[in-house]
Each structure stands twice: as C-alpha cells, then as structure tokens.
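Weekly modeling sync, notes
Attendees: S.R. (lead), two postdocs, one rotation student

Agenda item 3: backlog of single-chain predictions. S.R. asked that every request posted to the team notebook include the full sequence so nobody has to chase files. The rotation student volunteered to paste the first one in as an example of the format we agreed on. Action items at the bottom.

Example entry:
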Amino acid sequence: MMDPVSALHIRVKGVVQGVGFRPFVYGLATKLCLKGWVSNTTSGVAMEVEGPASTLDTFLRDLVESAPPLSRIEHLESQPIPPKGRPRFEIRESQVEVGYVLVSPDVATCEECRSEVFDPEDRRYRYPFTNCTNCGPRFTIIADVPYDRPLTTMAPFIMCPACQSEYDDPLNRRFHAQPNACPVCGPRVWLAPSSARGREALAVPEGDPQNSRTIEACAGLLRSGAVLALKGLGGFHLACDATNPRAVQTLRERKRRSEKPLAVMMASLDKIHQHCVILTREEELLRSPACPIVLLEWRIESTVCRDVAPGNRYLGVMLPYTPLHHLLLDAVGHPLVMTSGNISEEPIAQDNEEAWNRLRSLADAFLFHNREIYARYDDSVWFAPALSDEKGGTSPAVQPIRRSRGYAPYPLRLPFSSRPLLACGPELKNTFCFAREQYAFLGQHIGDMENLETLEHFETSIRVYERLFRLRPEALVHDLHPDYLSTRYAEERASREHLPLVGVQHHHAHAVSCMVDNGRTEPVIAVTLDGTGFGPDGTIWGGEWLLADARGFHRVAWLEPLPLPGGDTGIRNPGRIAVAYLHRTLGHVPPLPFTLVMGEAETKTVCTQVDKRINLARTSSCGRLFDAVAAIGGGRIRVTYEAQAAIEMEMVSQSVSEGYSYDLRSSNRSPEQSIQWGETGGLPSVRSTLEVGLKPLLTSVVEDVLQKKSLSDVGSKFHRGLATIMGEVCSLIAEQTGLKEIALSGGCFQNRLLLKTAVEELRKRGLRPLLHRNAPTNDGGISLGQAAVGHFSLT
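Predicted structure, as returned to the notebook:
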C-alpha cells in the first residue's frame, strides 16, 4: 500500500544564500520525485514539498546531511500543511519578508573553476572573474538581501545568452551564481601606469577586453622589479616579486613599513613546500575555502628574500584565492609579496579612484577592474601553535590573529541569547561586534583607530552590517579608555539615539572573549597578558590574573607596576623602558651593552624622569616587560612596529626547563584592596591578592648579560620563568577558589613559545587552559567580550 501524500512547509536559516542551496534543494526534490517549490527570503530559504510521508522523511534527513559544503544550517523548522497537488518542483523568485539572513563570506576559487581558467578549450580560458555557486565574491559585493544580482555590484553587467543559460539551469553549478560572468559580458581588467593622467587611467578601455594580455603585461612588470597596485576582492594589494630584494625594499620605503613582516602569495601547495614547513593543520587552513594567510616555519633554503620578514622564523603565506591571482602567479613564476594597499596605519584602498589618489606614489602601475567593491575587506591571518593535548599528543589547535576575509561576516555562536547591542571594540586592531539572539556578528578587521580615515571605515562597516543583517542596537558598549575613537563614537551615538551605554574594562573583555569562544560564561581564572589596557585604578594594566565571569571580575594578582617613560609613546623605545625598570627595581642601571648603545645622556635622562616622575605612566604590562627584557638581553632598543623587540627575542629563544627566579609575594594585600568591577556576587572570594615582584627576575637577567649570555639564552629562560609564574599564581588562586579552568587571552599569547610553555605549566598542575578558537587572542577579539559583558550588565 502506497503512503498517502503529505506536505511540509520548511524554513531554513543560516548561510543558505549564494552557496548553491536552492539548486541543491531542487536536485534533491526532483531525485525523490517530490513536488513543490523553493525560494530565497530575507530571512533564509523557504520551501514547500509534497509526496509520500516516508519520502519526506528522507528529504528532511538529506537536506541536513548532504547540504552544500559552503552552506551552514543554523535552524530548520518544518510544519505539516495540506497537500496542494502541485504538478512539479520549481524554484521561485525571492520573497521579501521581515527578518534577516546570514551572508556568506567571500570564498576562494574552487578547483572546477580553476581548471576552466587554465583550459584552452573552455570559453572562460584565462578569464580573471570566473566563479560559480561554490566559490567567488559574496560579502564584498552584496548591497542588500535577499542575495540576488540586482542587489549586488554585478548589477551593471548584463549576462550574455550563454551565461544566462547557465544561470537559469537548476542543474548547472552556476545556477543563480550572482557574480556569474564571462569575457563577453563580465568585468574586465586593465593596466594603467602611475604616470598616466587620472581620467585616462580610470576610464575602462573601449573595444574587446584583453584580460589575458593585461595580466601578462603585469607579470612582466613584476618580473622586472616593479611595484603593482592590484585590485582584489575587498580592496587593493601592493605586489612585488618576493625573491627580488631591491623590489621588496622599494615597496617598504614607499609604504613606510621598514621592517614589519609582509605577506607572500605562492601559486600552489607544492610551491609553499619549497619555502616553508607545513603541518597538517596548517595545510588544512591553506586549502580551506577561506584561504587565509597562515604563519609557517620558513625554510633556510627558501629563495624568498629575508627582507620580507626580517628577524622572523615564520613567513605569512597564502594561496591564490581568485582567478586573477592564479593567473598572475602563474605568469610571474615567482612568489609575490601581497600586502594591503595602503600607507601604514591607513585602511586598505577600496575603489579605483581612491586607490589612484592614495597609492600613486607607492606603485609603478595599477591593475584595475570594473567590478565595484561594496565592503572593504583585509586578508585573514591564522597560526597553529605547537601545543600538546591533555593526553600528551599533538593538539590540532589553530587560532586567528586577524579575522576578516573568508570568515566575517559569518557570526559566532553565543552560549546565551543576547539583546541587540553593538560593542565598539578597542583602539588597536579594532573590530566591532553586533550581538543579536544567539549570534555574535564579529566584524572584519578595521585596524588601528588612530586617524579619521580608519574611523570612517569603522562607521561605514557598521552601517553595512546594520543594513545586511537588519541590526539595530538597543545599547552600546565601549572600552573604559576615554580617549579611544571607538569610545567617543559609542558615547556620541548613545547620546544622539538615547541608548544605554556600558563601559567594559579592557582585560575583563579579553577574558570574557576567551570564555565565550569556548562556549561558557561561568567563573574562570583568567590570565590576560598584553601591552596596554586602561585600568580602573588609573594605571596601565597588562599583566593580570582575574577571577571573571560574564558579569564582572576581581583583580586578584598582577605583575608589579613599573614606570613607563613617555606613556603610550614610550613603547617605541624598549631601551628606555629597560632603563626605567632597572632604575626603579635595582636602584641603579648597571653598565650593560644596551646602555652603551643608548649613550650616557639618554640613560641619565630616563633615570631623572623616574626619580622626578616626569611624563611617566605606571604599568603592569607584560608586553612592556617583554620589551625591557629583550633590550637588556641585547635585542632591540628601538622598534619600528608593535612588539618587534619581543617578537625578535621569541624567534631566537628555545623551549628550556630552567627559568629566571622571581618573587611571588613581594606585596601581599587584603581582598578589600583588590579591584572589583561589575556584579561579582557569583564569583568566589579570595583570602589575599598577589603582586608579583620583578626585582629578582630582572636581577637574574642582568647577571646573565654581564656573564655574556646571548639573547637566545636570556629569552629562553625568560619565557620559561614567565610561564612558571603563570602556573604558580594560577595554582594558588585555584586552591582558594576551587576553579580549575584558566582562560588565556591577550596579545602576548600570540607568542608561540610563551603559549606552549604556559599550557605545559598549567596542565602539569592539573589545571585546564582555555584558548581562543575563532576570535583573536589580541585586541581583535575584545569586542566579542565587550558584547557579552554588555548583555549581562543590562539584564
């Protein structure tokens, strides 16, 4: 006996638009001989299906288990409806309704499209904008939802009959691929020398497009040592031959980035293996649809010139993620530096005219194209720390350093349902975060909020998210630092729109970011080590042990606060920090090699600053301690980018069993003197708080230097000593509170050696470290923590 005909109305939410979900549904329904329809809506995908009940059960199962690889089903709702006797299954026009849909990030070129680009028999041979439903631009071209071509920057390009036929065929992999195009009807590239007149350079050339010849001409320029401004997915890159030292140096001089590492793009995994050591988890990142930059161990025999990442054992490498990149790398035959198209500290250039005005002094020529970019989008950066797991094996842990292209705007899952709010993030490595229901929409990397151009990028990006995801915050959350541009934005907008305003301490946000990244909000011990964070006591924090949950925190231990000459500007001078630290802790500055380089006059000036408290800040910053030890040990006394001295010390340091001595109880205070913040009634109490004295540690460093120990020796012992401090302080707090989970957050945990030794020290004491997974451990993850604290502060 045949099953009676039944019918279901199904709604699917998640990343289900622009990823081939409707053709998948169409193919599944027709294979099972079901009737009905499927359609995009402004809140996801809706469908009606009818057929035998047992077949509908199979359809529902396969809908989830066999969904397209780029889709992410967050919620599926199915309701019985009366059968309507529909004659077939069809794909309907999009529906407009109240709601929002999750938008896919941009996706790297799939293997099928890459094969077509290099196939002389294919009509898209050497076409730089080839894509399908499995790959190509998404977030960067979407002006609004539902994700249909008229609401993208592809709207001006009318498909030719061949492309339209593909677009209309439900069984074709380009069915409703909104960026679908070919050399006949799609975007095109052109080359313009920087010496051209602006109007001529920016005008799309007339006549038949010569995409392939243009790319060959660009390759010739790069092989000759030129710097090229290249329009990509989310903005412009500056490119040069990574094996040409003169070209790399020219790029550095023009970009005003004298030593900070540059990213490199290589044509294939085989090419990367020639230059770098690749672990399995790193290869998975490189090959993923997100195609981020991955920090890899650099082979000594690599022909990539050392000026690309001076003083560094790791090279930031990515694979080509657009057909244009594939074609260019193939034509050049060498790895290419591929760095953000900007002058240091400015946002990446987005459109042609902006790039022409901002980058003309940096580039010898421009590779333009005429597909507009709707959302500015930097490359993402990830790393895979060499950690052991709890059983002694190798941990598969990977962490983002910068979460942007390929990941944003896909949201993170919250372990609670949030009211709608906007967290505005910190000043450095800024991201913002919208929280809504169970989602945290952690925005793409904005950068350092130190100029009006970056503030404008920040504000524009917020408006994009509000429009795409129908977000309207009911409260604003900000860092406690009163002078941050993000704080001022929050204050001004809250005043203008009469919204509640919540201030969150910097390191509490760090801690909660790590907690939420691990799916929890209940109390933990948090170790937050970074460079700078505004403390409620008026000092600069950065070496903190907190008892924290999503509502509040106790500050229960910290590194001894020491004088920072010049305040925030002093971070560019590790030598001055070292002098100030030694003068305060030892009472004098021994004649060490670094002081001879600085000179007697500068050394005395710093000592006078400390004695008379002139232009000084007090800081417990672990980042500044790294700077001081690096300078004392023979490393950098001046830096050209953030944390350079610490990074270069890490590069020469090894994992050792011996660490420097320290004084765990140089200051012992009562609980009444500890800093408390927020509603902390649910947190355990402690009998005493600890200030970790640094005089013994710094004395030991000085003794080693006087014995002519190398920076490698000093750095190795310092990393182990600091990890031991972490482990012992956490053990003492755990004994008093019963807490065993330790959240590790802050920019210092990007240091692979520190992270590795800290995890070892915690695990051997029976403690469980919580590490970042999806949000950066640096300040790029702070807005996630702010959003969670903001929600609980308002409930």
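Discussion: group reviewed the output briefly. The first strand starts at residue 5 and ends at 15.
Action items: rotation student to repeat for the remaining queue; S.R. to check formatting next week.
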